[in-house]
Each structure stands twice: as C-alpha cells, then as structure tokens.
Amino acid sequence: MTTQQQKQALVTGGNRGIGFAIAQGLLAKDYKVILTARALNSAKQAAKTLNGPVIPLELDVSDDSSIKQAVQTLKSQGINHLDVLINNAGVYPDNSVDILTISRELLDSAMHTNTFGVVCMVQTFLPLLEAAENARIINVSSGMGALDGLTTTAPSYCLSKLALNGATIMLAQLLRSKNIVVNAMCPGWVRTDMGGSSAPRSPEQGADTAIWLATEASEKDSGKFWRDRNIIDF
Hints:
Elements: E1 8-11, H1 17-28, E2 32-37, H2 40-48, E3 54-58, H3 64-76, E4 84-87, H4 104-130, E5 136-140, H5 155-175, E6 181-185, H6 203-215, E7 225-227, E8 230-232
Parallel strand pairs: 1-2, 1-4, 2-3, 4-5, 5-6, 6-7
Antiparallel strand pairs: 7-8
C-alpha cells in the first residue's frame, strides 16, 4: 500500500508538449514522476529540466516488448507500485488525406499507437497499479474522438481516439472492482508539435484536467470523458 509512501505517476510521451506539462504539474503536487519517451536520451534531457524526483524511462507504446521491458526496468529499480498512469503518448499521421483517400497503413498506425498501445499499457502495468491504493488511469483523448467531433480530414486520428474512448469505458467497468479509476480527457487544441503554433491553448492549460483527474477528482467518477474539469459527451 502507498499510504506512507510518496505517490508515483507514469506519464507516457512526457518529454515534450502536454506530457511534459503534466509531469511538471504532478511534481508540483509532490508526486514522483516516471517520465517516458521512445528514446532514453529524450527522457533524460526532459528530466534534467524538471525540479523534483523524476525517473527517465525508455518506452515505445507501439511496441509490446518495449512496454514489458519498461515494467521490468522499473521493478529492477525498486518501483513496486504505480498510483497514476497517464497515457499521453500518441500520433497524428493524417496529412492531406480524408476518409476516402487514407491508406490502411495510416489507419493502422494511429490505431496501433493511440488505442491498442493504451490497452497494452494498462494490461502490462496492471500489477503495479493493483499494488497501489486507489490507482488512477487517465487516457489523453481528443474532442475529435467524440461522436459530434469527428472530421473527415483527420480520419485515423479521429477513429483511434473514438476507439480509445470506448476502451476507457470498458476498462473502467472491468477495473472498478479493483478500485482503479479510469477516465479519458480532452486537452483542447494545444500549442504543441502536433497542435501547431496557432493553437489557442498552452501546454499547461491542456495538462490541467489530466493533473486534476490524477490528484484531486472524485474517485466516484470513472469511465467518463472530461474537458476543463467538466464531464462531456463521448
């Protein structure tokens, strides 16, 4: 149990953008942060710029063997529980395509990372989450994955986030008996490499709801979709 221990959170894709802002926010709330990136050097460089206990970790959510290796690495470092898992890493492969022109390969790329990667993360890290008291999982989704937010010009991204929202509901139902809360959140249109420089929201604004869900939100709300700390429709 974690009652007498510092709480620990893992953030995928934590080396930049929204993930980096989430890591900053969790450190400010006295969490130990496991910051992951596809390349260990990227995780280490990001960790150096943060104030507080940060463990850099190589993890590619599109690679099952990488996810399994990450768990083994943490266990070898004495990490035996995980209070928070924030599935932030994702891809946006859509470029000058629509639902009629996109290839199966692009569709597969987005689904493989944005949806199946999250499912594999939860499956593989479940023993560490079960070892914590009232663990929380936050899936960074998008309003473009909501039924009323789908757009034909970002087909793989929209469909992968729509499926991620569905996985969130399913995971929440199955994990409720284990006292593990699962929610999805939309950060809004954020100024990141993915969102572009013209986006209206800062990474800190985009990260706020994820941090709140991880640290303050009621444990009674699970299997919901959130934006700006309010429940929105799937």
